[in-house]
Structures are given as C-alpha cells and as structure tokens.
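note to self: the first set is below, dont mix up w the second
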Amino acid sequence: MTSIVLGRVCDLGPELSAISAIEVPADQARLRDARFDAGTDSWSLTTADGRCISARILIDTRPSTEPTIAVHGMPNYFRIPGPDTTAQSRLVAHCLELLRRSGSTRIEARARIQLRRRPLRALATKFYLTGSIPTDEHVYDGAATLTLAEGDIAVHARLSGHLDAIDGRYHWRGSIAGELPDEVLTKQRSVTVSTTGSSAPARVMERTPWGGYTVTGVGAPPFAID
C-alpha cells in the first residue's frame, strides 16, 4: 500500500519507516492540488512541474499548529503536524494497519481525530472502513446550495452515500466548501443542501482544517441515485 507524503518522509517517524512512500516536497505541491477518486479510493496529486502522482494514502507531514490527524470528509488522508511527530506517526501507523487487516480500501474518520494523552481505545470504532465504492454507492461532486435561516449560500459539495443494510435507510455524507456564517457550528447546524432538482435536510458536523465543512444526512439525498 503506497502513500504520497506531502512534506518530508524523514518526518514520518520510525513507526512508518517501512511504508512504501512517494515524497513530494511541500514547495512542489499544495493540498488543494490533491484529488480523491471515490471510484478507486485513491489520491492523485499534481506537482509544480506537472507530474501526476497517485497512491492509496496521502500523509501530510508539514508542520502546523492545527493538531488534527484525521477528519471526516477526507478519506485515506492523515496529518503528522507535530510537535510530537513520534506519537502522531504511531497513531497513523495503527490506522494503516487497521486498514490493511480489514481488507478495506477506504478509511475515513467519523469525527475529528487528535492525539490525546490517553491512547484512543477501540480505534476501529473511530473510523468508517469500506471497500471500493460498490455499485449501490452514489457520488456527487459539483455545485450546490446551502439553505440557512438567513438565506441561500452557493457552495461546492462532494457527497457520497449508500443504502444501509441494517436500518434500511439511505445514509449520505461529505464535505462542502463555501463562506458560511460562524453560527452554523454554534446555533444552527440543521441546513438544507440542494443540487439541480434535488434537496435534502442535513446537519453540519464540523469545520475541517482546510476551511470546508462536513455534512451528513439520512434519507433521500440531494443528488440523483438512479
């Protein structure tokens, strides 16, 4: 299982020293140049010189004061921001081992994951583990409208969902990018997400470290599932 390392491989720490890694120096690419392919559960990253690199996992080792290691809405993506890179690398290594043992191709945090003084227990319960998107999984990537009490806001949405075999209901989730008021995370988390011809109630879960927001919904999604 190959990983793209955005930053320096030497910052991975001994726990990740044995992984197959493709190093992309931070001055040669940006995170916003990376794209996740939901059809193959892999990342591709275009460098400054025009190279396109693809791998299952994307690990960001650039130093940052933002302590998040994994976040919902960014599958197969991990951060090792420091300062305790050894402990952060150990946690990422556990996640990759969890992915390998499960036989899955996608690992996505259920919520924001940060390093705690006490180790995370029942690590598998903190992540969604799935295979490549099956035929009954649906994906939407495009323009959308978020409706709040104050009015409509144009956003870009990346959404996917599936019919759950346990409760028989359709579950969808994803990320949105746009200028949302602060109240969306403090007072009004319930919103409506609309695409061409479809709309659905949703809940804004959290803000990602990259300026977007994660949303989830249960029931008919705001995109076609034919």
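second set (the one i keep forgetting abt)
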Amino acid sequence: PHFKSVWISSLPYNVLKGGRNSFKSSVIVLKLAYMMIRYIIAGEATNIVVIRKVANTIRDSVFNKVWWALNLFGIAEQFTKTVSPFKIVHKTTGSTFYFYGQDDFQKLKSNDIGNIIAVWYEEAAEFNDQED
C-alpha cells in the first residue's frame, strides 16, 4: 500500500523514499519488468537503463533483482543474461535491460541506446549531486 502510487502514477519520474527493507527496489523492479512486458506483448523493442553509483555492486543488487522480477512474472526463460557487459535481453524482441555504474561514466556516455522507456537510479542518495 505504501508505494501504490508508483503503480498508478503517470508522472515521468518517481522517487521512492523509505528505510532499509522498505521494498523500494522490489516495487521499482516489478514496475519496470511490467512496463517491458507490455512492450514485448505488443511486439515492440524497448530498453531500460539501470544505474548504480559503483559498477562492482551491480551483479549482487540490481542485476539479480531484475532477474528475480522476470522469474516472478514467469518469463525469465524468454531472456538471456550476460555479465560482460551486464545486460538482460529478450530473445525475440531484443528489448534490453542495460546496467551501468556511474563510476565508469565513459561507458555510459559512449552508448547510443534508443527506445528508452525508463532509467532507474538505484540508491539515488549515493549520488553526490545532479552532475553525478
């Protein structure tokens, strides 16, 4: 109930606040997976970018969390995952979750990704300011 507004929001951004274990990440990843599923059902390719402050925490956090959500929806077998680079790609449409660490800004800056429907800044409080 606390994050119900995220599911019904038409705002272009959502900021979820709460303490540890308040399910912020779970709510966001389920919403993002659901958004991607809607595009996949329509046969459209789309992309979601996930950013953490430090790249070496991606695998044990957001990467596994996205895979968890896809499993929960029962569609993980429709995706392939790679760890170098971190990506989860839909086998049919090519829709992709891209994962980046802000500490490796050159990789993030040099990528040309189209059809982005969402950007998830995990643990946004870790970022110093808008420049990060």
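remember for set 2: DSSP finds four helices and five strands in the chain.
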